[in-house]
Amino acid sequence: MKNKLILTLILTAIVAQLGFGQTRLFTYNTGVDYTEGEWHSVDPVILGPSYIGIRLTCPDDGSASRFLVFDLGGRLHSAPYFVDNDRFSSEAERLRPEREKIRAGWGIRPDACVVLYSGKFIPKKRVMDLARAFRIVCERHPGKFHLLLAGEGPQRGALERDLSGLPVTFAGFLNQKEIPRAYAAADVMVMTSDWGETWGLSANEALASGVPVVLSDQCGCAEDLSNATAEAKVFPMGDVQRLVALLEDRRKEIADRGWSISQRRELMKVMRERFDAENTITTVRRLLD
Known about the structure:
The chain is of the alpha/beta class. It is 42% helix and 18% strand. The protein is built from eleven helices and ten strands. The protein has a six-stranded parallel beta sheet, sandwiched between helices. A four-stranded antiparallel beta sheet has the order 1-2-3-4, covered by helices on one side. α3 packs across α6 (179-185). The longest helix is centred in the last third of the chain and has 18 residues, at 240-257. Residues 4-10 and 12-65 have low confidence and may be disordered.
């Protein structure tokens, strides 16, 4: 897997060096709107005599949501972001027997529905939306939820104030070696970000770990992941009440039917088949031949 990642980075670097200039052309959020806007830009690149590629970027942090290629016949080739699915899946399998111990270490009740947030506490992540939604579900369902926050940032103080008195664990920043424990403890992962979230790789990580996700419709990954699996739910950015409803649905699903090992593994399989390094490598290799 490491060699695959290195090869992809090398090929991507080669493609980037072939680029000619940057032109602010249109907004790209979830693949639906191609309208003029200020927060996204496009890098045209030449991929041989028959292909023209575009790298979609967000100027606030320079990150790219995806690489798209149009051939001369008008066909579109997509290479969505990916993570090391095998590593996250294998870690999920390894940690599954320790789930209750891990949860207990973070002060989580065995029967609680654990809502995970993994990311920085900064405005574009809109984590305060999650805080408001979590207070509502706790008021409606006392003792049934627990919020696990894996991250740090300038909004931590505001979160501590807004979540005071609720079942919440601030786990701090968890690196790539530590984060699988959070996924092992979680029942659902939430991403509330605005359009600055050009993809959102923690959603890939969660799904590859067998954990369903709830995503703002402005996250770059929202359309692709929700089209790939019913376990990626989408809500309108900022719609706290819709987020509340989706969290309640998830808790009810667990209470009524549970979440089996086979369901987790099916979700892992989807990520391996649809959002894996091999898919990106195959696309780039084919276009560079």
